[in-house]
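Sequence decides. Our protein:
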Amino acid sequence: MFLPEVKKQIVQIALGALILSGAELLVYLIIRRMSLSVLLGTLYGCAFTVLSFILLAYFVQKAVDKSENGAKAYMSGAYTLRLLLTAAMVIAAFKIPQINWLAAVIPLLFPRLIIMVLNLKGKIRPDKEVQS
């Protein structure tokens, strides 16, 4: 379903999200705010973050097969869908009393941090442009 490079990036994001979720739980433990709702919120947020990244990878891979204008429209729709799903996730985190909303929202920042770290380490490099 996914290209090997895409699978690798999904695994990197998933592992990074798990590691950062562990760090988040550790911080809650250190500041003595750890609870079942924090654990559930962190797991909920981490799972949604990985799912959102998988959806992004899927949509990008599908857009490559389309014309330039078709790909732009497709990605615009995909972005809107992911944004609506994220809004629904945050609203659910607020509404479900068993979930700590802050612990659920924090993992939404993880992919950006993970990608930044991978870039700094040189693990993600854009392909060299093909010269015509």
